[in-house]
Design brief:
Bound molecules: pyridoxal-5'-phosphate
Strand order of the largest sheet: 2-8-7-6-5-3-4
Strand content: 5-15%
Structural class: alpha/beta
Largest sheet: 7 strands, mixed
Shape: globular
Low-confidence stretches: none
Number of strands: 12
Number of helices: 13
Order of helices and strands: HHEHHEHEHEHEHEEEHHHEHEEEH
Helix content: 40-55%
Distance between the termini: 32 Å
Length: 395
Amino acid sequence: MTPNLSNSNSKPYLAQRVTGLKPSGIRKFFDIVATMDDVISLGIGEPDFVTPRPILEAGIHALQQGKTHYTSNAGILELRQALADHLQQLYEVSYNPADEIVVTVGVSEALYLALTAILNPGEEVIIHTPCFVSYGAEIILAGGVPVEVPCHVEQRFQLQPEVLRAAITPKTKAILLSYPNNPTGAIASRKVLQAVAQIASEYDLVVISDEIYDQLVYGIEHVCFASLPGMKERTITLGGLSKDYAMTGWRIGYAAAPAAILQGLLRIHQFTIMSAPTAAQYAALVAIQQGSDHVAEMRAEYNRRRQLIVKGLNTLGLPTFEPRGAFYAFPQITVSGMDDEAFAERLLAEEKVAVVPGNAFGAAGVGFVRCSYATAFEKIEEALERMARFMQRHG
Ligand SMILES: Cc1ncc(COP(=O)(O)O)c(C=O)c1O
């Protein structure tokens, strides 16, 4: 059940910025799904794969070796060095492991650090929607104001530079970029990102770039925003192990930024978290150093499922843009005559298939649902059969 945060006491114990937060739209569905049998969930935003064996063993080995203590606040140096090498190798962007990288408890923490470090009360952060459900809430918790810039399927869900420019006010502090995108699966072209870079320079904005799905792209390049000329200086790059390496439960992510910014994030991390889980850092080290074949294998399987689900949904009469990154398809469901909330509720009740209503990801998601293909191929096949029955009744 979603807890009710309003209180019956005359004195409100909780802060208004907390009581004012809307509960996540995703959570409501998971609460219902948890009470049902035989549900095929396309709702989950995490890999169905278990963490690849060598990575798993590195974590176990670290524990057996007695690595059960705190690490340095920024994370073990070997991991920071490996992350720096990795970013250099993949994107030719160079970070000094000594003072430009902090290992965090997932990208969730890295994002919170970035926002808390840069925002004064009331400063605005532009987010392009549809976007990850936590962005708006994390900005509010950090004292800022989220400003939504809608993206549309006609532009392949890419941020339109002129719309971005129109959303900038004297209070704008940062742009939060998120490509490959959750929930649309969109990637941003180099041209679009260059235009964003131009605007960021013109208005002297910080760019927080959440690139957690960077290695899950299908036949297309991922452009690391910080690698664009002149952008490293104003960019906080967020990356993580959760999605690419199937390590959600290990809780490892990182932030990389020029020292003057990164040291601000580190100060907050130091006082709130101390250090990311130690054994997980050793597992992450092996993932970064030796995990590329495993990532390639999982990516190939996601790609097979991606083709299945996109073709399947389009065949059902649900127009689905071709996602080129992450592991989500984002079909438009207006043909059903239902809104996205009703569509998801009835699909779950009538055919036991769980999808997430698009409005959970911002107003621009209205009329769409998110279907994750981080689930077995055969289950996706079965889900499509169930959805076909549903669409025969409601199409
Ligand atoms: C775009 C995006 N950023 C960040 C996260 C959080 O990931 P982590 O497990 O690293 O905290 C998610 C998880 O769904 C995500 O989709």
